[in-house]
Amino acid sequence: MAVHDSVSLQIPVRLRAVSGRARPVGSITRGTTNPNRLRRCDRWLAGPQAWRLRGGTAAPIVVDLGYGASPITAVELHERLRRVRPDVEVVGIEIDPERVAAAKPLERPGLTFRRGGFEVPLDGARPMVIRAFNVLRQYDESYVAGAWAQLQSRLAPGGLLVDGTCDEVGRRATWVAVDSSGPISLTISLRLRGMDRPSDVAERLPKVLIHRNVPGEPVHAYLADLDETWARQAPHASWGARQRFLATAAELAERWPLTDGPARWRLGEITVAWDAVAPATGPPRH
């Protein structure tokens, strides 16, 4: 099922189902997934974002939206987050009923699966986190604002939408964090060993940015500066890629509003404030 609303990044509107509200909103994705593919984002949710799960007395709900042909990412998410909050409720949501049926035997206390799409059907409950990885990548860029708006409307107070993309085995990942006010940051997470240059992650940018990696766009300038700084810090390579990346991030922080520090940088992870890399006004240039 396709979504026909045409939206701009400046004027978000909600996506609607083509044939009425009763049907899931969105399209069936390709469904490619692998064990540990989303471990980098899981680690971030269980680290810098753990405060969102620990607050309050009610069990927080975390949604793995569009988990794909295998429910393994939802299973892993539950295993990792219950170390932070034992009573966390992880809900895997998929638009394909066959995928949901295949996942049902894996249900257990704190982990359930149900059919749905961008409407996030939770019987009136509101999730603290919605993770949508490799989902919007398969839509046109014009759908992003509407999808974000609909997902934002489903969040609990203080909740977070994570719109991300990664490669098939999770060695390169990026994600945009979106709260009720809008996007707040862009995170890049890389396997440092064997990495040529940080901008190799460009092909895994979220849909909202992937077509913006061209001269004149802020995200292009950011990646170019990241590469140049990585090159300048080559002398640190004798102590390993981790030390080189730490030095790279420390220098980059002098020019860009990074929101994290060495504890995350040593993992190959770096987060910058959204305003610094947000798309320039107007349609993307190809």
Any chance you could write out the topology, listing elements then pairs?
Blueprint: H1 39-45, H2 50-54, E1 61-65, H3 72-81, E2 89-94, H4 97-103, E3 111-115, E4 129-133, H5 144-152, E5 160-166, E6 172-179, E7 182-190, H6 207-210, H7 218-232, H8 241-252, H9 262-265, E8 269-273
**Radius of gyration, whole Å:** 19 Å
CATH fold name of the largest domain, please?
Rossmann fold
DSSP strand tally: 8
Count of DSSP-assigned helices: 9
Tell me the count of domains: 2
- Terminal Cα span: 28 Å
| Main beta-sheet strand count, sense and barrel state | 8 strands, mixed
Give the ordered list of helices and strands: HHEHEHEEHEEEHHHHE
CATH architecture field of the largest domain: 3-Layer(aba) Sandwich
Strand content: 15-25%
The share of residues in helices is: 25-40%
List keywords for this structure.
286 residues; alpha/beta; 2 domains; 8-stranded mixed sheet; 9 helices; 26% helix; disordered N terminus
Question: What can be said about this structure in brief?
Answer:
The protein has helices at residues 39-45, 50-54, 72-81, 97-103, 144-152, 207-210, 218-232, 241-252, 262-265; strands at residues 61-65, 89-94, 111-115, 129-133, 160-166, 172-179, 182-190, 269-273. The protein has 286 residues and is of the alpha/beta class.
